[in-house]
Design brief:
Layout: H1 2-11, H2 13-23, H3 26-40, E1 43-44, H4 45-51, H5 55-73, E2 85-87, E3 95-102, E4 111-113, E5 117-119, E6 122-124, H6 127-139, E7 142-149, E8 162-163, H7 164-168, H8 171-186, H9 193-215, H10 220-252, H11 257-278, H12 291-299, H13 305-313, H14 318-338, H15 343-351
Helix pairs in contact: 4-5, 5-8, 8-9, 10-11, 13-14
Length: 354
């Protein structure tokens, strides 16, 4: 199913090109230039290693081929030339991503793009342009959240690089990010963004821990320390996710908008106070939440019950796990193929492409 899905995407290349011509505009042209820079400004990992003086980065450059090999051969992810190049940047991310939501519902604002379909985010290589879109959405009464992404997958259409922001957060983050993005190239279901991200988050986190446990580059004490560090880092996300049902219950009540806005402000204050107790030294902007940011924690959860069950049923065997994933993808794809697509839906999607 995974290779079949890839061939299906390639078979749509002509349609994609025609769509890009039809939809071509300032946004697409700028994104194209940014993607070309990302592709052709890379240097080979071995050359980056030779040129690097920072000992921490040198160690990580040495680790990258081993992580990639482990992901391909042990986790059974698709083999490609991704993550064999390095893109150096002083920016906090290689793309600046805008997400948005209604204020009275945990419902994402979506944009439509060729290949990937409808997605709840829009990326820019230029931070100012991302912030301008966020300001426009806020003027229309949406909650917004803008963040710098250290990496993203082009689903095999281009050669994806390791980036400086990926290195800055250390070995575990580097491994989990590489594996996360490799999952997207291996399995991607158009229009099923929640499933795509939850699958990549699950495999990224579990795969990274498997890598360090099996690579024998760490002592048992170091591995235990890593597990504790990862556990501490997940407490933030777990705390946020515990609030999601309470926000949904609030928004499901039939009450005036003004009343709801006051009540949600109180609930956000409670969440931010809990985060402040857990992380008293966290800057205030990192403790600020709205619906758009809440949805990020739901979208990227590694704890999807469906995916967790697949893993449990597989007995921790990656081959059996991917068989279960393929079966599930076949099932949801067949359902999607039976759903009628109306002209109204298409027009609404395109109108969201700002």
């Amino acid at each position: 199913m995974r290779s079949k899905g890839k061939h299906h995407l390639k078979a749509r290349l002509l349609l994609v090109c025609l769509s890009l011509i039809w939809l071509s505009g300032c946004y697409y042209l700028k994104q194209g230039r940014g993607q070309l820079d990302l592709r052709f400004s890379q240097v080979a990992i071995e050359n980056a290693l030779e040129q690097e003086s920072n000992p921490t980065y040198r160690h990580l450059f040495e680790e990258i081929p081993r992580i990639k090999s482990f992901a391909e051969n042990r986790l059974l992810l698709r083999k490609s030339d991704n993550y064999t190049g390095y893109y150096k940047t002083s920016q906090p991310g290689i793309t600046f991503v805008v997400t948005a939501s209604l204020k009275n519902k945990l419902t994402p604002y979506t944009w439509w793009f060729p290949i990937v379909g409808s997605v709840p985010y829009k990326g820019y290589f230029n931070q100012k342009e991302a912030e301008e879109l966020a300001e426009d959405l806020e003027s229309r009464n949406f909650d917004t959240w803008v963040f710098a992404a250290p990496a993203y997958s082009t689903l095999g259409w281009f050669k994806d690089p390791v980036t400086t922001p990926m290195l800055k957060r250390g070995g575990y983050y580097l491994a989990s990010t590489i594996i996360h993005e490799m999952v997207h190239e291996t399995v991607f279901v158009s229009g099923e963004e929640a499933f795509n991200e939850q699958l990549a988050s699950f495999v990224g986190q579990k795969g990274a821990m498997h890598y360090f446990a099996e690579s024998r580059h760490m002592s048992q004490e170091q591995l235990t320390a890593l597990r504790e560090k990862v556990k501490r880092s997940t407490r933030f996300a777990e705390t946020v996710r515990r609030y999601l049902p309470r926000f949904r219950e609030l928004y499901d009540r039939q009450q005036p908008l003004a009343v709801m806005l006051v009540q949600r402000k109180l609930l956000f204050s409670e969440l931010e106070a809990d985060i402040g107790q857990l992380y008293p030294h966290l800057p205030g902007n990192r403790r600020h939440f709205n619906n758009a940011r809440l949805l990020q924690y739901e979208r990227y959860t590694p704890d999807s019950p469906v995916i967790q069950k697949m893993w449990m049923d597989s007995g921790g065997d990656w081959s059996r796990f991917w068989e279960a994933v393929d079966a599930y993808v076949n099932e949801i794809t067949e359902k999607k193929d039976k759903e009628p697509v109306t002209m109204t839906q298409a027009v609404e999607n395109i109108s969201h492409t700002e």
